[in-house]
Amino acid sequence: MGYTAETVEELLGFYEKHASEVGFSIRKGNTRFKVGTRIVLEKTYVCSAAGVTNNGKNKKKKVQTVVPVVPKKERKPRQVSITRTQCRACLRVKMNSEGRYEVVNHVIMHNHDLTRSQWHYLHRSERQITEEKREAIETMQKSGLSSTASFNYMAIEAGGEENLGHSKKDHLNYCTRLKMKQIEGGDAQAVTDIMYLELEGDPNFFFRFRLDEKGKLRSLFWRDSMMMEDYGIFGDIVVFDTTYRTNRYNLICAPIVGINNHWNNCMFGCAFIGDEKIESFVWLLQTFKKSMGGKSPISIFTDQDAAMNNAINQVFPDSRHRLCVWHLHQNAITRFGALKRDPTFKKTFNYCLYKCVTVVEFETNWRSMLQQYELIGEEWFTNVYDLREKWCPALSKDFFSAGILSSQRSESTNHAIGFRANRTTSLTDFYRLFKGTIQRWRSTEKQAEFSCSKSVPSSALPLSGLLKHASEVYTLSLFRDFEEEFGYSIATTAKLIWKQENTEFYAVSIDEEPWSAQRVTYIHESQTVSCTCKNFEALGCTSKRGGQNLPSHQFGTN
After folding, report:
1. 3-state DSSP of 83-137
2. Is 185 exposed, middle or buried (0-12, 13-18, 19+ CB in 10 A)?
3. In what residue span(s) does the FAR1 domain sit (predicted)?
């Protein structure tokens, strides 16, 4: 009593320390100002248990109108725990005649149990996110850490939650307010502003967007200069994945992915579209084509979608549209029913998807599967069979696919674009996550390039002749694949079947595996070799463009 200070805040600080030592939380009470100003004349701070809890009984009832109103389903009232006990503990300060603030009343008795010392840090009055903490949280959020991850990091750094100075709920609430601040004025406008900023730093940055009749964002596409450069080198294969709806507006996210010369994924662009109509896909593909200088890919892989197929035929009529077998496999799993638990069925179905080399082999295995598991007439399997030319290896390995027709490559490509986003992610949040993913991909590529420039591949086989040349021109990843095939070739037996003028036909098979036999054709005049397995056409070949023999891809170069 009678203690004075220059400011109210100074007295509040003393009272907070007192509350922390004793074991209770405080909150602001009544404030009286000087008439016509914001100068505080009197201020009261009370125990957090002061007053009574509002249980909703005191709310005024609405007056019933004469016009009948359709009854609305009322929300179940939230059960609120009683935390107020009409405690009279308080501190009242008043400005004295000297202009200083003086303690004029201090009630120290409480009518409730005080908090145990190990729980003091949970008091609301002791929890505060300081400016230094705010900066740290914002930095971690920009780096891609989730709200929970950033809280756990700060708690560990502080030596435990009790030493951090704020609770997990405070942390999550601040992160939410931070997100709302970032998208103030409209999320679509915010991400568009980000695009313009990107354009200032990267003159070759490209983006386009469309609005609907209400002025809301309908479609958005963007790519940077590095994506254009990658597409110019590795753009023979393009994977469109339109299966993501991981944002709060239910927009379809369509990352456009390729594969570089280290068998790693590279991004060519990304888009948001509002629906899966032909018109939306046509806009996306035309915008993508325009951003890449009109270049068309050799092969385009998509999920099973008729609208996308029609759009590809319009925009890229000379490209080969193929269905991604990984998506087929995932869709089939949801339709197996009781067959999900049958390992033999999965093995048979996967063999039809990935393993069949010849058309006869595929047709035989497919009919056998339908008969054995009574699937004849099943609509989904009938539709998939009608589209067999777009996914069956026996019918699709006459063109370059970078191995995406295989199970391992396809799954790797589609899993890699799973950004850490969910249905509450805003567009600005997604763009930040997207950039983080691209940076990781490019960092991986730099590391692979560095390894290739500083090392020479080793081999269990003598590095001479063809194998030595492969080690000099292929990246380390591709050399391992080539080495495996080279090892198989050593273990094969070639038998001349017949010869016709300048053409020779061989049966090549792995020793002790007669079922692996393939027919190899060699034409003397053109010095060309072809095999019924068509692995060379699918994984690496040359094609004629503009009358010149140009490599259809540059996967094998360092």
Report:
1. CCCCCCCEEEEEECCCCCEEEEEEECCCCCCCCCHHHHHHCHHHCCCCHHHHHHH
2. exposed
3. 14-115
CB atoms within 10 A of CB 387: 15
Q: 502: part of which helix (H) or strand (E)? A: none
Contact 433, 144 (CB under 8 A): yes
- pTM value surpassing 0.85: no
101 φ, ψ (degrees, to nearest 5): -95, 130
Spatial distance between the Cα atoms of 122 and 294, rounded to a whole number of angstroms: 61
CA distance readout (Å), 217 to 88, 191, 421: 55, 11, 19
DSSP characters over 293-334? TT---SEEEE-S-HHHHHHHHHH-TTSEEEE-HHHHHHHHHT
Alpha carbon 36 to its chain's center: 55
What Å distances lie between residue 395 and 354, 528, 538, CA to CA? 11, 21, 11
Rounded to whole angstroms, the Cα distance separating 220 from 287 reads 10
Render pLDDT for 454-468 as a digit per residue (tens, 0 to 9): 888 888 888 888 899
Closest CA relative to residue 87, chosen from 42, 23, 32:
23
3-state secondary structure of 466: helix
Q: pLDDT by residue (tens digit) across 103-158?
A: 999 999 999 888 888 787 777 777 888 888 888 888 887 776 788 888 898 889 88
How many Å apart are CA 12 and CA 26, to the nearest integer?
A: 10
pLDDT for residue 248 is more than 70:
no
Q: What is the per-residue pLDDT across 354-393, written as a single tens digit (0 to 9) for each? A: 888 788 889 999 999 999 888 888 888 898 899 888 888 7
Q: Which of 243, 245, 266 is nearest to 327 (CA)?
A: 243
Report the C-alpha gap between 127 and 28 in whole angstroms: 15
Other CB atoms within 10 Å distance of the CB of residue 451: 14
Q: Does residue 537 contact residue 393 with C-beta atoms inside 8 Å?
A: no
- Give how far Cα 183 sits from Cα of 132, 179, 180, 367, Å: 23, 6, 5, 55
